[in-house]
Design goal:
CATH superfamily: 5'-nuclease
Number of strands: 5
CATH class: Alpha Beta
Distance between the termini: 16 Å
Structural class: alpha/beta
Number of helices: 6
Number of domains: 1
Strand content: 5-15%
Order of helices and strands: EHHEHHEHHEE
Radius of gyration: 14 Å
Length: 131
């Protein structure tokens, strides 16, 4: 089953927090071709702005290079994806940015990789791989 990685998972990996080994394992599965991996462009931007806000522009540029080297397909939301995200946001207490990742997981039939408890609200809508 494919994976969609949330910004929470990627930031945990970057910051070498407790879930980092599991995120590394998932990225290796994707890199080996065992599974497909996706990242919404909205969540890509979320990772970049958080790194820039917390650690500065230089590290944000390094993060962009790192994200671009990951074995993930970065998906640019089209009109349909935006409407799905809007629908998810309208009915669930999650951030608008997070609704794009959730919508991508729904579309791809993918496991959504996160440790963000906000996504408990989506249990039953998408499969969540908790880290």
């Amino acid at each position: 089953m494919p994976y969609v990685l949330d910004s929470h998972a990627l930031l945990a990996y970057l910051n070498q927090e407790e879930p980092a080994p599991r995120v590394r394992e998932i990225l290796r599965e994707i890199e080996r071709g065992d599974e497909l991996g996706f990242l919404s462009l909205i969540n890509y931007g979320e990772v970049v702005y958080i790194v820039e806000r917390e650690r500065g522009l230089e590290l944000a540029h390094q993060t962009i290079a790192w994200l671009d080297a990951l074995p993930l397909q970065v998906v640019v939301p089209d009109r349909e994806a935006t409407l799905v995200a809007a629908h998810i946001k309208a009915h669930h207490p999650i951030s608008y940015a997070d609704s794009f990742g959730a919508g991508l997981a729904l579309r791809e039939g993918a496991k959504f990789v996160t440790g963000d408890k906000e996504f408990e609200a989506l249990t039953g809508l998408i499969e969540i791989q908790w880290i």
